[in-house]
Design goal:
With 327 residues, this protein is an alpha/beta fold. Helix content is 36%, strand content 28%. The protein has 2 domains: 243 residues, Rossmann fold; 59 residues. The chain has 11 helices and 13 strands.
Length: 327
């Protein structure tokens, strides 16, 4: 049986809308106007033991709403959902002890406590045996090289240090499923690499099933063999990550920066996204990327170049366009 299974899962929110100004406020006292927003629309998903799945899509696509339904934070409007054999929104203790969730913009650390004291609190909440707790804590602290700030108040940690401690907190009780919502948001490149290495180790060593939402395409490409692409609440693609990027990510985004004002002239076939005297952002077809970068470094030796993957929103638009052209 699949660890996670949804069928025709749907979540609709009802929103109150008020006309602007005092007149709109008075009118709303007697007659309220509501609109409906479907955040997740007829979503089918399965996840097996030990899978590492990337849940990707633009802002507002419904990824976080889906995670909240899978963890029981909100109830679905309709459809079926089963996680670890439970209906999540019942919030049974036996269910809550088998999963963990980490959201990059929310914290489960208690800021007035040290990290070590927070871990002890979670040990009691999850009834973790002493030997399991000590073994897991030693393992995670060593993997993150985090022993130096175990006895530090959580509020004094940097963002990267805090995210490491968030992951340790989430994994102390050996969850079978880990939900991650933007775990590397705002982190610098070294911190992102540490967290990716840690997650890969947990998936391989413990067989933890992980669902990861991220706008950082390097997170998805380096960690997730399978990707589920979400657009407007619907599942657009479900399959191998490499196939998705090979088929639809046709360009790279390049940023060229200069210390002095420069009359930078772009090669052909490179649409400009942003340009001023000191900075130009443009896209270049993947097949031509190497040649274009070589040409720029030859003609502008004082130029700093940064190469990124295309924004996931662009890929979603391209997939939709392809579906309309080839129904």
């Amino acid at each position: 049986m699949s660890l996670i299974k949804t069928r025709n899962l749907t979540k609709t929110f009802r929103r109150f809308e008020k006309a602007p100004g005092l007149a709109g406020s008075v009118k709303s006292l007697f007659k309220r106007v509501y609109t409906e927003k479907t955040a997740v629309d007829g979503f089918d998903l399965t996840a097996e033991e030990g899978e590492f799945i990337g849940l990707i899509g633009p802002n507002g696509a419904g990824k976080t709403t889906l995670i909240k339904m899978l963890t029981g934070i909100i109830a679905p409007t309709s459809g079926e959902v089963n996680v670890l054999g439970y209906y999540p929104n019942k919030l049974e203790n036996a269910f809550k002890k088998q999963y963990a969730v980490v959201m990059g913009q929310k914290s489960q650390l208690i800021f007035d406590l040290t990290c070590a004291d927070t871990f002890l609190l979670y040990k009691e909440m999850y009834e973790i045996p002493n030997d399991v707790y000590k073994r897991n804590l030693e393992l995670f602290v060593d993997l993150f090289d985090a022993r130096g700030y175990l006895n530090t108040q959580a509020r004094t940690l940097s963002l990267g240090e805090r995210m490491k401690m968030e992951l340790v907190t989430a994994l102390l009780h050996n969850p079978r499923v880990l939900f991650l919502d933007e775990p590397t948001i705002g982190l610098d490149a070294p911190a992102q690499r540490h967290i990716r290495a840690f997650l890969k180790e947990m998936n391989l060593r413990h067989g933890t099933t992980i669902l990861l939402t991220s706008h950082n395409m390097e997170d998805v490409r380096s960690l997730c063999p399978r990707s589920v692409l979400v657009g407007s609440g619907k599942k657009v693609y479900d399959g191998p990550t490499d196939k998705l990027f090979d088929a639809y990510q046709t360009s790279k985004k390049v940023t060229a920066q200069f210390e002095d004002a420069t009359d930078f002239r772009l090669p052909e076939n490179c649409p400009v996204l942003e340009q001023n005297a000191h900075k130009t952002v443009f896209t270049v077809p993947k097949a031509l990327c190497g040649a274009v970068l070589h040409q720029i470094m030859r003609d502008y030796p004082q130029c700093d170049l940064f190469v990124e993957e295309e924004d996931i929103g662009v890929i979603v638009e391209r997939i939709y366009a392809g579906r309309e052209a080839n129904p």
